[in-house]
Design brief:
Layout: E1 2-11, E2 14-24, E3 29-33, H1 40-47, E4 55-62, E5 65-68, E6 79-82, H2 94-104, H3 110-120, H4 136-148, E7 154-157, H5 166-181, E8 185-189, H6 193-199, E9 202-207, E10 210-215, H7 226-231
Parallel strand pairs: 3-8, 3-9, 6-7, 7-8
Antiparallel strand pairs: 1-2, 1-4, 4-5, 9-10
Helix pairs in contact: 2-3, 2-4
The structure holds adenosine-5'-diphosphate (ADP) and magnesium ion.
């Protein structure tokens, strides 16, 4: 469970997240939706503790252990994040990119762990290429594999379906489902309404720098959010 108390984030004098207080359960697939520029990526950076709020507190309870943004302890690598720009090292092959966190953590049996994650993601045909020699979908698989290799309990993925064709989206969804089945929780930012409708265990709506709705996927059919109402073809009540 995430508990956000009066969370604010500014860049310069622009207020990007505005006094958010809410609870976000960690339950299977948590799908985050909202218009471009509404603050989803910023929220994800706070939830993964790579940035801290300017005001307020982000609290995470994960399997009985508590983490707070106002305290120094961080939940990594039990919590990992795949950002929109994948941050693969360009001078390293995909295999070397994935090996890096294993090496840094001093993991025993590094090669067998590496092999199993490469198999899981069906990457053996291109894993020895550099990031600029593979497609966006293949690079994204490598970024996911790298996030997964230290067995996190929670993975946050920004714009999971961005830049993927339909077949690559299907492959990604199959992997995500496998991950969920293995007990990993995922917080997924996506514009795919189809994905949210089929798979979301929870839905979080971000609009204009604030969380406007948190609920089960039922909220997609009767949303309060004007953005979602427009997206599913419900007319927004007059005067709004
Ligand atoms: P989303 O992911 O929903 O598209 P973002 O969280 O990326 O939204 O951005 C929300 C707003 O914050 C945008 O107006 C964006 O320009 C601004 N913003 C995000 N990151 C920064 C930054 N590092 N510096 C300045 N402005 C930023
Ligand atoms: Mg974004």
């Amino acid at each position: 469970m995430f508990i956000l108390d009066n969370v604010e984030k500014h860049y310069g004098n622009v207020s990007v997240l505005k006094n958010i207080s809410c609870q976000i359960p960690i339950d299977g697939f948590v799908v985050v939706m909202g218009p471009s520029g509404s603050g989803k990526s910023t929220l994800l950076r706070l939830l993964s503790f790579v940035e801290t709020p300017d005001h307020g507190n982000v609290r995470l309870t994960l399997n009985g252990q508590e983490f707070e943004s106002i305290k120094p302890t961080r939940p990594w690598p039990r919590v990992t994040c795949v950002f929109q720009k994948q941050f693969l090292w360009p001078h390293l092959t995909l295999r070397e990119n994935i090996r890096l966190p294993l090496h840094a953590a001093g993991v025993h049996e590094l090669e067998s762990k590496l092999k199993s994650v490469i198999n899981l993601f069906g990457m053996s045909a291109f894993v020895d290429r550099f990031p600029n020699e593979v497609s966006g979908g293949q690079a994204q698989r490598a970024a996911l594999a790298r996030a997964l290799v230290l067995d996190p309990q929670l993975i946050l993925i920004d714009e999971a379906h961005g830049g993927l064709d339909l077949e690559q989206q299907k492959i990604l969804n199959d992997y995500l489902i496998k991950l969920r089945e293995s007990g990993v929780a995922l917080i997924i930012v996506t514009h795919s309404l189809e994905f949210a409708r089929r798979y979301a265990d929870r839905v979080v709506i971000v609009e204009d720098g604030t969380v406007t709705d948190v609920g089960t996927r039922d909220i997609l059919e009767r949303p309060r959010s004007p953005y979602l109402r427009r997206a599913i073809g419900l007319s927004t009540p007059r005067g709004q």
